[in-house]
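Retro notes, structure queue

What went well: the backlog is down to a handful. What didn't: a couple of records were mislabeled last round, so from now on we paste the full input next to the output in the thread. Example, using Glycoside hydrolase from Meira miltonrushii:
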Amino acid sequence: MTASSSFTIPRLEMDPETGRQLLMVKDKPFLCLAGELQNSSSSSASYMEKQMENLRSMNLNTILMAVSWEQIEPIENTFDFAELEANILLARKYDFKLVLVWFGNYKNGMSTYVPSWVKKDPNRFPRCSIHCPNNDQESIVEVLTPFAKENWNADAKAFGHLMSHIKEIDSVENTVIMVQVENEPGLLGDSRDRSREAQSNWDAGVPKLLLERLAKTTLHPILLSRLPNLPKILQNAALSSSTSDGWIEVFGSQADEVFMADAFSQYVEQVARAGKEAYAIPFFINTWLSCDDVTCLDLEGIPLKHNMTTAAGGGNKPGDYPSGGCCPQMLNVWQQNAPSLDIFSPDIYLHNFQWVCEQYVGQNNTTQRTLVIPEMRRDEYGARRLMLAYGNYNCLAASPFGIDTMKANEAPFSRIFKLLKKVEKPLLKAKPGLETFGFCFDEIDRSRSTIEETRVKIMGDWKIIIKRAHVFGVPGPGCGIVIQEAHDKFLCIGWGYSVYFSHENKQFTGILSAMELDYVNTEDGQGTLKQGRLLNGDETRSGACLTMPNEYPDEGGFPIPITIPSGTAITVCQPYAL
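Corresponding output:
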């Protein structure tokens, strides 16, 4: 598996025409249609070989898989990459790209995937200590403290060896295209580490460098809402000759979490830097989200029971969720301290999907122009939100978690990934959020008094109005993306919705043409969209709107089948205005 000396590595590259940040693989833009395995699945290549045919049937082109420190360095300074190499060969055989997830020191706020020689030597590899309110004592936990250099040196060395090996065996083929560095780092059980090493750093006060960095950046709206006087405090502290500004003095109620975010981000930077020096492909970090902002704990307007959310998501206080992780309120700290990370990513399960995406890319984030969602729901609800991720937020990869324990024909995302593959070219050529619009409609909750049925987007002179597709019968769920390919040319993909057009300066609008498209393979392997049926009658309601129907559009038993079932789920539509 030895690579040659000449190679082009995967990289992130900004398209000057669209403003879209692209993942370039073999010098071509690549859209990851991804799924993440269960955490222990990739530890056995023989297990993975049994899963490959099923995974191919899910229409994936990318797999996120863990590589654990304990497996590649079972004995200190003795590295074993046999299972990893076997998995890479399997991925090539079945035409998958891989995103590796480094289970180093941190995995879900714990240190359970470190080698036994690390676990059994707490003197050399110190652990965090937390305060136990039940007995008013402190107790060590299975989390290596980020304040001990011996911890990050060992982790960074192992990760550097991993990336060097990947470069050696894969720099020509480019099977491995991105790496997640650690997994949901942070401290569970307490808002901050009480170990001796941590207390020494706490007593020393806020590092001057952190104050200077934060004073120069635009603070995240959530952090500002909690600490409205922070910009002034940071400016004064950065200019002060004092070298011992206290954490509480500067950060008030957020002091413990900022303290831990500063430590974890510096730790991860040490690890990521070692990897970049070995093989500089794109790196990202993922985040176990906090539940402290109740407004974000709903399913697009349907509030969740708070006890359900805290049980599944961790809670609403630092320590209930991993304190110091890259949550939105700590994003500034991570971005300033960890320049070797290219992308800062949320895992989204129970939160309002759009709200979370907006915190990491878009108006709330002036420094990040793309998004990776390493973990998300794998059910129908999650699958529909793939359209939001790829349509609105320049998402490089949105990845349902636990894919290897599902059957492809039962996986809701299989159908959506198949569709997204067909429109990959026009999607990557559009300006994200300006010339693309992703949306979805969930099953109707009859217990709600009001149901939001309209999605609106302005594209140039046109107002795009999306409504749930419904003629007769029972309206169902739906999802889609509208791509503006020219001033009066819109590519509509998906099902379960109708598109209405309104022009800013004209009184009358209608649909001039609607043509169904289908994807066909070409000799060069690139594929193209070919014209199919002309849909200028019932499917446009005589020019009123374009309907992208569901598979079973008229469930109410109306005897006249006026709405045809969904076909290719791809239509190019030309509106006009007089």
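Agreed that this is the format going forward. Reviewer comment attached to the example: The mean pLDDT is 89.
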